[in-house]
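Posted in: Protein Modeling Q&A

I'm a second-year student putting together a small comparison for a lab meeting, and my supervisor asked me to include a predicted structure for Lactose transport system permease protein LacF. I've never done this before, so apologies if this is the wrong subforum. The sequence is pasted below exactly as I got it from our records. If anyone can share the structure token output, I'd also love a short note on what stands out.
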Amino acid sequence: MLRRKRWLFAMLAILPTLAIFAWLRMFPIVETLRLSLHKWDILSKNKPFIGLANFQELMGDRLFHEALLNTTIIAFGVLIITIPTAMVLAALIHYRTRSRASGFYETAIFLPHVVSLVPAAMAWKWIFDARLGPLNALLSFFGIQPQAWLFDPTLSVISVIVLCSWQALGYAVLIYLVGFKSLPVSLYEAAKLDGASGPQSFWFLSIPMLKPITLYVSVVTLVSGFNVYAQAFVLASDAQGAPGRQVRVLVLDMLENSFRNYRVGYAASEAVVLLLIVLVLTLIQFSLLRERGRA
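Accepted answer (user: helix_wrangler)
Welcome! Here is the predicted structure, written out as tokens:
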């Protein structure tokens, strides 16, 4: 009886939080699913049910294919750069710096993550500027010709990857530092007595024991990469603030279909596709790390 009362009290205690979560998170997802099955626009009162017609149209939409390809390249590019770099930086800060200096390095690395997104993107837009940017000035010392970072389709995607990686790195390093501080010191001492070097201990001890941290950081990084918008919008916009067309991403495509073309149902179908992609990739990451953990 007492156990039942405790369970009931716990359920009642978390009920307000669950209700807020359902209203702010679950209801928009369900509503988006509903909108994707309708020909829903802002101007017309008639919003007929059309089933999967929006998804069928997506299959032949060239702009959607371009946005999906760019978003996928950016998301995985940021993931590939952020995970190993954050792990190495966290290891260097944890093992190679003094306690007083580590606080400075942690703050300096984490600072880009809390800087406002638009000013940071504007600063990087100046760095990537083809005529006045310091990046091309630096490359000129090595005999490399100036590059049109924000006008060439390939280089503009690389520019967005660099900016997103710079912003995501601080958070990933901070999470990895928490992981390194929780690792048992006795294992490293035993490995040192057995003749293992620092890199060997890092490869055979740290990386396997940090798999849960890697899973969490990779999922968060990949999800944020697929939701990239402001970075691509600011970097690719012209001097008057009009959005450019060099870096077309899924969120930008959804916003244009919703508020410029008034095709809310079609944009909702894009959001559903994005949700499914992120969900499938997250499940794959969980399954891969679980299998490696068993092995």
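A couple of things worth pointing out for your meeting: Residues 183 and 209 are 8 Å apart (CA to CA). The radius of gyration is 23 Å.
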